[in-house]
Design goal:
The protein is α/β, with parallel strands linked by helices. Helix content is about 40%, strand content about 20%. The chain has a single domain (about 15-135), classed as Rossmann fold, CATH 3.40.50. It has a 5-stranded parallel β-sheet, with helices on both faces. A two-stranded antiparallel ribbon has the order 1-7. α3 (about 50-60) links the parallel β3 and β4 (about 60-65).
């Protein structure tokens, strides 16, 4: 008895969350400006400061969560678990200590659990945005947690 999967169809117009640590904000902003023509076709979400900077630099409407240390990473993770996010672009700084590191790890974990495409650096973001699936429908496989959710918890 192997793992059971279900199919989830990602639409042409993706819901993308964009997050960047302080030392990576400029990199993410530069990348977003460079690819603004492709990003304009999608729904954008971001944590606090990153979202405000993205709006200012690109002119896009961005749905903003709280700042990462104030719970924004957890809000993004919740949206992922609820199927409200299709892709994560998280330019994180592996060399700087983060006070909310457990939240960051939880966000990365939930993205993997729900098989959400995720870029943690510029090179991977380039691969994602240049994929034919970036702006077309895509069917992904997600573990079917029905049995897990229905188990008795005494």
């Amino acid at each position: 008895m192997g793992t059971k999967y279900r199919e989830v169809i990602l639409p042409e117009k993706k819901k993308i969350v964009m997050i960047a640590h302080d030392n990576k904000k400029k990199d993410l902003l530069d990348w977003a400006v460079l690819h603004s023509d492709k990003l304009a076709e999608h729904h954008l979400y971001a944590t606090g400061t990153t979202g405000k900077l993205l709006e200012r630099e690109t002119g896009f409407k961005v749905t903003c969560f709280e700042s990462g240390p104030l719970g924004g990473d957890m809000q993004a993770g919740s949206y992922i678990a609820e199927g409200k996010i299709d892709m994560v672009l998280f330019f994180w700084d592996p060399l700087a200590a983060q006070p909310h590191d457990p939240d960051i790890r939880a966000l990365l974990r939930v993205a993997v659990v729900w098989n959400v495409p995720m870029a943690c650096n510029r090179a991977t973001a380039d691969f994602l945005i240049n994929s034919p699936y970036f702006s077309s429908e895509y069917t992904k496989q997600v573990i079917d947690f029905t049995v897990y959710k229905s188990r008795k918890t005494d």
